[in-house]
Amino acid sequence: PVAIHRGDYQAPAFWIDTVDLCFDLDPAKTRVLNKMVLRRNPDVPAQPLRLDGEELNLARVLVNGQGTSFRIEGGQLVLENLPAAEEGAFALEIFTTCAPAKNTKLMGLYVSNGSFFTQCEAEGFRRITYFLDRPDVMASYTVTLRADKTLYPVLLSNGNLVEHGPLGGEGNENRHYAKWVDPHKKPSYLFALVAGKLVAREQRIRSRLGGDHLLQVYVRPGDLDKTEHAMQSLMASVAWDEARFSLPLDLERFMIVATSDFNMGAMENKGLNIFNTKYVLANQATATDVDFANIESVVGHEYFHNWTGNRVTCRDWFQLSLKEGLTVFRDQEFSQDLCAEPSARAVKRIEDVRVLRTAQFPEDAGPMAHPVRPDSYVEINNFYTVTVYEKGAEVVRMMQTLVGRDGFAAGMKLYFERHDGQAVTCDDFAQAIADANPGSELARLLPQFKRWYSQAGTPRVHAAGQWDAAAGRYTLTLTQSCAPTPGQVLKEPFVIPVALGLLGEGAQELATQQPALFVMTEAQHQIVFEGLAAEPVPSLLRGFSAPVILDIDYSDAQLLALLAHDSDPFNRWEAGQRLALRRALKAIADDGFAAGQPVLDAAFVGAMREVLRHPQLDAAFKELVLTLPSETYLAEQLDVVDPQRIHAVREAMRAQLAEALFEDWQWAYEEHRDNGAYQPDPRSSGRRALAGLALAQLCLAARASGDTVWPGKAYQRFKDAGNMTDRFNALSALVASAHELAAPALQRFHALFKDEALVLDKWFALQAGSPDRNGNVLPAVKQLMKHADFNLRNPNRARSVIFSYCSANPGGFHRADAAGYVFWADRVIELDGINPQVAARLARALDRWKKLAEPYRTAAREALARVAAKADLSNDVREVVNRALD
Ligand code: HT7
Ligand code: ZN
To answer: Where does the record place the Peptidase M1 membrane alanine aminopeptidase domain (predicted)?
Structure first.
């Protein structure tokens, strides 16, 4: 496979002004007539036109209505004899066919449950017609859809519906058509069409800044009762973008359509967003609080792309974070702004950081490490990563930290003034934010700040304090470093905003002469605090002000003080995690560690009890503090990883907390379980989360003591719960504690929800991700794959079983007999023949194999080598396994 390099960017040799597409939709053979008006780009030397194409059958090519010579070269349609620049625009007509029903890659035009959908980002449009399929070529689209009226009563595309009606003529008796005109120019990746038997929830709104709009959420008949939350989320998104950034909805009609076959979460096609059903459908009987929150943020995310992505798009795919990092930042801010209470905002921030640290930090330290703006790729689909998205969002967040909230809004305004309607770069964005804030630290440090875009790897900040009692002086030394990543050995210092404060005696917040934000630019800095009465406890990187690893040698007493008293909720949580981590790492390092051995001391247990019983703290915050660091996070702290040791230690810690806090968990459960009307707001979902954790802990404790009361209560809760969150938490408690009631509960759950695909996904995922006991999970996973409801072609279902096992269940997956890796290699190869994008995601499960202890390391390498040896692998999977083996 050939790598594409950022430095090789060249402007297109032709522009496409207009595109007139006519589709005759048929699952077996769809006919596409593509009439374009093109002109040469005068800034580029004359050259042939090379149009991208993939899996198309070409029937006809006409230039200005005449036949012309052409050739197919490397999949591209090459036209040499085109009018010269002086002749101006010319018409190009291309007639092709494709086979949507056979499209298992779910890129381009495909069929799902009898309806047609498209997915064009990043390079799917070339599977629909020959085109300059790159984001810097923006055209005006007119689209006509023709199809059977009974099978496809709804025909949708981007923009406004200008005509529709029956099709005349022989053979068209039951056929109809719809013609759509998009008033906005767009790149091909934002094109979409949908055709099928769908129904819509509709809402007319009058926006504060714009006019009247029609919002629609299209789903399959029968799912309409699950669309209210998505619609509410959409309305809230429109209002938020107007209020926070003065960005109005620029369309008369904004549509969301749900499909159950989708490679990712959702897609921001102009005016016609296409969503995975998982991020649309919800009611209290079928969706959990987490589902409700995810829907809110994904609906927001896609809506916010309408400006950050669609109005201003990427010049090339190396700039992907321009739209994705910025839009993740915007959706995170949106979800925080919807929180009524500051504590709920903090909870959201902790959740976001947890994702960054458990998924992005490992990526930044592994074979797929790449800068937020990558320098090269083989397959762009492999670069829709947590680095581009989540780390990209942290980079934008740091900009806001450096210029302030109002300064950032001013920067956004300037960005749109300068670039509306253009395809631009990450540099253009950073420049606009800096230029709007001329006196700011960002403006002063911009070239250095932009290293966040060009250097991969997670920086480490080492902090050491020195106390001079006689002088009343505390000196804090901060040192930054960043380990080499593939292709980047030496790193220059980053600009690192460190939000900080000091806790004094009695753990009260100290007023100091130093600002609350210190901006690191050098490899080392010293910050001196004078006039202190006693040695302070530093609270650093408050709110996680930069995406770095903070090394600091706190004593237990200092961490306990921070956990109990820090005014920054993020660092309060962080102190609890550090206390747990320290104990876990000590036990993991102990070669004599035996399963079930105590890991936790009275001080730690006491501190956890205090948080759990705290009269003022929020339930959601308590749940976060009382959840131990994940096995993946623990593994990241180690140079050599024995996944079974980590699993055993974490399980021992869970069991010990369960038993030591038994009465407190009972109190927490009784206090926080409620039977009132269901609301998915942060406060009530926090209560359910804490009650769920308590129930899981009580069932776990019961496992050790042989008590049957709590498993019985969990089973009862499972049966009579009024919402999916409580029901699923109760079921999970039984499954995680391997109680004998788990089997009948699982059976009953399946029977209750056999017709609800998204709920069945949960049922599969719960079993594939359950804590391993004597290697029981892999046989269960193999059994699940034989279940009548399993379907490898459906990405959600494949993820619910295979990914839940290989990527989210380290204790079950990393087996000494290598059977987990053999299973993984078989599935990667099998999936690659169906859907390379999904296969390549699964291939990443062994990214960190070089850190594994023996015998896991050798076995993992052999599994990777077996996949790599396969002759006809997709570029997607080949890039991932080659980089892993490198
Ligand atoms: N911008 C969207 C990316 C996306 C995608 C990319 C490749 C293959 C399939 C895909 N579906 C959606 C999603 C987003 O970030 O909003
Ligand atoms: Zn996005």
So the answer is: 230-443
Count CB atoms within 10 A of the CB of residue 808.
17
Quick one: pLDDT at residue 208? Answer: 79
Q: How many CB atoms lie within 10 A of CB 640?
A: 11
Q: For the segment 816-840, what is each residue's pLDDT rounded down to a tens digit? A: 999 999 999 999 999 999 999 999 9
| pLDDT number for residue 209 | 72
How much distance in Å is there from the Cα of 268 to the middle of ligand 2?
A: 7
Q: Write down the pLDDT at residue 229.
A: 98
What separation in Å is there between the alpha carbon of 319 and the centre of ligand 1?
A: 14
The CA 300 to ligand 2 mean position distance, Å, reads 10
Ligand 1 atom showing the smallest separation from residue 309 Cα: 1
Q: How is the chain split into domains, by residue range? A: 4-197, 313-454, 460-552, 753-886
82's CB contacts (< 8 A; 6+ apart) are 40, 48, 49, 63, 90
Compute CA distances 577 → 193, 250, 560, 582, 624, whole Å: 47, 45, 11, 9, 9
CA atoms within 13 A on the CB side of 61: 18
Residue whose C-alpha is closest to residue 520's, from 503, 541, 501: 541
Give the architecture-level CATH label for domain 4-197: Sandwich (2.60)
CA of 600 to the centre of ligand 1 (A): 43
CATH of domain 313-454: 1.10.390.10
Testing ligand 1's pocket by substitution, the residue of 118, 267, 319, 320 carrying the most ligand atoms inside 8 A of its CB is 267
Pairing mode of beta strands 313-314, 423-424: parallel
Q: Name the 3-class secondary structure at 539.
A: strand
Catalytic residue among 268, 296, 302, 631: 302
User: Which protein residues are within 6 Å of ligand 1, measured from CB?
Assistant: 119, 121-122, 263-264, 266-268, 301-302, 305, 324, 381, 384, 837
- Taking 70 as the pLDDT cut, the residues of the chain under it are 210
CATH (residue range 753-886): 1.25.50.10
